[in-house]
Amino acid sequence: MILLEANGFDVVISNPLKTKAIASAKIKNDRVDSHMLAQLLRADLIPTVYVSPLELRELKELIRHRQRLVNDATRMKNRIHALLRKNNKIVAVSDLFGVRGLQYLEQIHLPQYHRDQLHTYLSMYQELVEEIKPLTQTLNGLTTDKPIAKLLMSVPGIGGIVAMTIVAEVGDISRFRSYRNLASYAGLVPSLDASGGKYRMGSITKRGSRYLRTALVESAHAIARIKNCRLTLFST
Questions:
Q1: In sequence order, which ranges of the chain are alpha helices (DSSP H)?
Q2: pLDDT (tens digit per residue) in 172-200
């Protein structure tokens, strides 16, 4: 996309879900799809999606890169926990990956083949943690130049990373007509099945930005753990 824009092309990104509703076909291949998209674009019928400015796209890449590393680190932690369960080991420390926990892992008795696995997982986890630290510092530092991020961080449960995630994923807030549209974009609105005058509310749609949804859900969980918080009542 950046390459096309740099060469003077106007880039239009179609919403695949809505486009499919307009132009579904039994015969599908790249040639048929490209022809259909060209016809819809010519008739100004392409349901487009919002394209963030380059600055926000770069911020998204930074945030998502960090999130992928965090997910990988969590995966290593889960593998270590699974390894201990296989050997019926009861963890006697509150934080297995804190100072005391790491000492416990170094001293624990395991069969050699499991000891080798533990060493591999632990090394990968520690390397990932070292890669995550500078990214976290960079993102927290960016909040100083973002007034909206500072405002978001005044809300209990929202820290620098979540604030910057919201800034990057939402972009220009004026593009949403109301808070309902923003909630729908985050995929946090309930699904609705209406038929014959009867309405049935289902689980949340989970459509839209999963990164924004994840950040907001994490904030809600954080709020629930804060004592005497004015928002706790609404998060439980």
A1: 2-6, 16-22, 30-42, 54-86, 99-107, 112-142, 147-153, 160-170, 179-185, 210-224, 232-235
A2: 999 999 999 999 999 999 988 777 777 78
